[in-house]
Design a protein that fits this description.
This protein is an alpha/beta fold and 238 residues long. The chain is built from 7 helices and 11 strands. The chain has a 6-stranded mixed β-sheet, with helices on one face. It has a 5-stranded mixed β-sheet with strand order 1-2-3-4-5, with helices on both faces.
């Protein structure tokens, strides 16, 4: 349903997430968005050339072009994938980035922390544990989910076996040295190494990044880390 008011535009959309229907309010009016949020509904603020450019207090924003020949936002560019993400973040559900033959690649959840903490026992140095600490604290992980996933859309993701739901590692991309480059990284937990999970996950992630972001991807490995170097060669990154 589309409502054109004196000050802007309001659209209501419904989508299904895990079999449940949710209503979303999409608007370029801040007051309409705040009212929707206050009522416990998902709201998405539209950023376009002729509308408001700031929406304090609104969690989900999407930049859209103006409709050809008209002074109104083009709502046809809002796809269901983005709305799925907004609803999942609103509900605290992880976004599934990709699926492979054996793995589900999804965003991390606070519920993953106990499994991640067990992995620290296999880390060799305090530096490794400190670098991984963001995934061991509920407060830090919640902030990462909100700011990294919520704002950038990408990050380090959980690798979960389809067969039994076991977390076998993590992999993903982070900001690279330049704005048009993302850096690939991965960490397969000790019991699941040498089973091809790293290559399987990284190939799916590279495909996802190419489709979604269209930017270059780089990767690094220590000179004595021959398994990683060999993998990066297979992936065309070395």
């Amino acid at each position: 349903m589309l409502i054109q008011s004196e000050s802007g535009m309001i659209q209501e959309r419904t989508i299904f997430v895990d079999g449940t229907q949710y209503s979303i309010v999409i608007s370029d009016e801040r007051e309409a968005l705040l009212a929707a949020q206050a009522a416990g509904r998902v709201s998405v603020g539209l950023l376009w050339e002729g509308g408001e450019q700031e929406f304090p207090g609104i969690l989900y924003l999407m930049e859209v072009p103006s409709k050809a020949g008209e002074k109104k936002p083009d709502l046809t560019v809002i796809d269901e994938s983005y709305l799925q993400q907004a609803v999942r973040r609103f509900l605290g559900l992880p976004w599934v980035v990709a699926e492979t033959e054996r793995l589900v690649i999804r965003e991390f959840m606070v519920d993953d922390i106990p499994n991640l903490l067990r992995e620290t026992e296999s880390m060799k140095t305090e530096e490794e544990r400190e670098a991984d600490s963001i995934f061991h604290s509920p407060e830090k992980l919640e902030a990462y989910i909100r700011s990294q996933y919520g704002f950038w859309g990408y990050g380090i993701w959980a690798l979960v076996k389809k067969e039994d739901g076991v977390l076998v590692g993590k992999a993903g991309v982070s900001a690279g040295v330049n704005d048009d480059v993302l850096e690939l990284s991965y960490h397969i937990f000790a019991p699941y190494r040498r089973q091809g999970y790293a290559e399987e996950a990284c190939r799916a992630i590279l495909s996802y990044v190419k489709t979604e972001y269209g930017c270059r991807v780089c990767a690094a490995a220590a000179p004595d880390n021959l398994p990683s170097i060999n993998l990066l060669k297979k992936l065309g990154l070395w």
